[in-house]
Amino acid sequence: MNYEECEEDVIHDDKIAMAKAEMLSEDLIFEVSNLYKVFSDETRLRILDALLISELCVCDISELLNMTHSSISHQLKVLRDMRLVKAKKVGKSVYYSLKDDHIQKIIEIGVEHVNEK
């Protein structure tokens, strides 16, 4: 049996009305979609993973990921623009950390889902 398609063409108006009433707005869907696009980049995800452990400066992250300062700075700007990381200036260095606990939860849920058998 093929579960991808219905065997008969029946519209369930009550279920459609309920779904329409409770679905997210188009604007919110757009914003959430953009958030997940940020998580789809391996470099950004590696940066977030490192920041789960400790706040780090660009030099630290560059060394850790074996990438140029410029490429790390570019990715950190994307993460800052999406409000996923925050920056703190200490002397001549700028240290980055996760903006809030939501980021850790998103990563943990993703890892948990991938590890399901």
Descriptive notes:
- This protein has 117 residues and is mostly helical.
- The chain has a domain of 63 residues: Orthogonal Bundle (Arc Repressor Mutant, subunit A).
- The protein contains six helices and three strands; from the N terminus they run αααβααββα.
- Strands 1-3-2 form a three-stranded antiparallel β-sheet.
- Helix 4 crosses helix 5.
- It is elongated and about 65 Å long.
- It starts with 12 loop residues before the first helix and ends with a helix.
Outline the low-pLDDT stretches: none
CATH topology of the domain at 55-117: Arc Repressor Mutant, subunit A
Radius of gyration over C-alpha positions, nearest whole angstrom: 20 Å
Helix content, binned percent: 55-70%
The CATH architecture designation of the domain at 55-117 is Orthogonal Bundle
CATH class of the domain at 55-117: Mainly Alpha
Strand content: 5-15%
Question: In DSSP terms, counting alpha (H) and pi (I) runs of 4 or more, how many helices?
Answer: 6
Largest sheet: 3 strands, antiparallel
Order of helices and strands: HHHEHHEEH
Q: Tell how many strands the DSSP assignment holds.
A: 3
User: Average pLDDT value?
Assistant: 93
Classified in CATH, the superfamily of the domain at 55-117 is Winged helix-like DNA-binding domain superfamily/Winged helix DNA-binding domain
**What's the end-to-end separation, in Å?**
24 Å
Overall spatial form? elongated
Order of strands in the sheet with most strands: 1-3-2
